[in-house]
Amino acid sequence: MKGAKKAAAAKSSKNKRSVMPEKTAKTAAKVAAAKPAAAKVAPKTVAAPKPAAPKAAVPAAAPKVAAKPAAAPPPAEKKVVTQRQGFKANEFVVYPAHGVGQILAIEEQEIAGAKLELFVINFMKDKMTLRVPTAKVANVGMRKLSEPALVKKALETLKGRARVKRTMWSRRAQEYEAKINSGDIVAIAEVVRDLYRSESQPEQSYSERQLYEAALDRLSREIAVVQHSTETEAIKEIEGQLAKSPRRGAKAEAEGEGEGDADGEDADSEGDDTSVEDEAA
């Protein structure tokens, strides 16, 4: 009996083993059939996230830089005023080489592709018009009219004693001409004083007379404009001051020569100032 039971149990286990592989094979087939479907589902394309657009950089300092040019015009305007040195249209000025003139206008001209600002100055007595660059007024020595106090000092200079240096006339003539063209009203008055001759004194030479008249013309023009008078009235005032000066007699001439030596001037071969005047003639 026991042997029969063992045989039956072995048979049933064998049957189970034979059935299990069949079930396992069917399950594997189902799984294999299901895999391709999963494979088809798996390769779904996922849209890549769009890259964010780069933000435009906004310079923080841009507004500050843009605000600076607004303050630029004032310095430019100041530069123009500096170049003009305070001169204005219709104003009387003194140009050293030509004397008193009037600014008719301030105009711009294009020269060699560059704009140039010019003073248009009229010298009525000489019938001449001069154009001077505003940036060059300091170089040429152009100045405003003298103050009344300086005019008074020039008139006082005329009453002084004439100072004639004991040198050759050619050298003295150069000194006189340099004073006239300096534009200094007191220096011009000194030339008028030194070259003036009264009726009781010897006549002037031709070259002396020319320099005297040039100095007198420059001086009288400026005095007339400053005092709002005519040139004729100004000349009368100048001659009135000259009449108050000490007479230049022989003694005065000797004193003048002594002053020249004291100033360290070189004495020429001529013995006195009279010979020098003869040479100038």
Describe this entry's structure for a reader.
Among the domains are: 85-144, Thrombin, subunit H (Beta Barrel), CATH 2.40.10; 148-280, Methane Monooxygenase Hydroxylase, Chain G, domain 1 (Up-down Bundle), CATH 1.20.58.1290. Helices cover 54% and strands 12% of the residues. It has helices spanning 2-41, 62-67, 73-84, 137-140, 148-158, 169-180, 185-195, 206-227, 231-243, 250-262, 273-280, and strands at 92-95, 99-111, 114-123, 128-133, 143-144. The N and C termini lie far apart (185 Å). The protein has eleven helices and five strands. By secondary structure, it is α+β, with helices and mostly antiparallel strands. The radius of gyration is 55 Å and the shape is elongated. Strand 2 and strand 3 (114-123) form a beta hairpin.
Number of helices: 11
Question: Could you estimate the helical fraction of the residues in percent?
Answer: 40-55%
How are strands sequenced across the largest beta sheet?
Answer: 4-3-2-1-5
Tell me, what is the CATH class of the domain at 148-280?
Answer: Mainly Alpha
User: Beta-sheet strand percentage?
Assistant: 5-15%
Report Rg: 55 Å
Q: Main sheet, how many strands, which sense, barrel?
A: 5 strands, antiparallel
List segments where confidence is low: pLDDT < 50 over at least 5 consecutive residues.
36-42, 249-281
Mean pLDDT across residues: 73
Report the CATH architecture of the domain at 148-280: Up-down Bundle
Q: In sequence order, what are the helices and strands, one letter per element?
A: HHHEEEEHEHHHHHHH
CATH topology of the domain at 148-280: Methane Monooxygenase Hydroxylase, Chain G, domain 1
Considering the protein shown, what is the CATH homologous superfamily of the domain at 148-280?
CarD-like, C-terminal domain
Basic shape = elongated
